[in-house]
Amino acid sequence: MNDLTFTIGHEELVIRQRWEVVSIINDILVAVWFIIGSILFFHESTTVAGTWLFLLGSIELLIRPLIRLARRVHLTRIGRGRSASDSDEDY
């Protein structure tokens, strides 16, 4: 088996961790908006508010790939491109 070795500088590691935290917070917000929106659909009087929260959750879903793109651009600007530790499934 071939082992893959790579080195990540301190600055790059800090940037990756910060963007990961932003992504996690975004994912939590998506869940919160959809859960609250779902609860609001149980009563006809709160359906409009539930609909707005579903729209907000959908917008948050769009923000996820934008976070990944911003992280990639940020790393490229400091001289780091895609490294062996990146994958298409990361935050």
Q: Would you kindly provide a written description of the structure presented here, covering whatever features stand out?
A:
By secondary structure, this protein is mainly alpha-helical. It has 2 helices and no strands.
List keywords for this structure.
91 residues, 68% helix, mainly alpha, single chain, YrhK family protein
Mean pLDDT over the full residue set:
84
Could you tell me the strand content as a percent range? under 5%
The chain-level structural class is mainly alpha
Span of the ends, CA to CA:
28 Å
Helix-strand topology string: HH
Shape, principal axes of CA atoms? elongated
The oligomeric state of the chains shown is single chain
The number of helices is 2
Which runs of at least 5 residues are low in confidence (pLDDT < 50)?
Answer: none
Helix content: 55-70%
The strand count comes to 0
Largest sheet: none
Keywords: Membrane, Transmembrane, Transmembrane helix
Domain YrhK: 17-72
InterPro entries: YrhK_domain (IPR025424)
Protein name: YrhK family protein
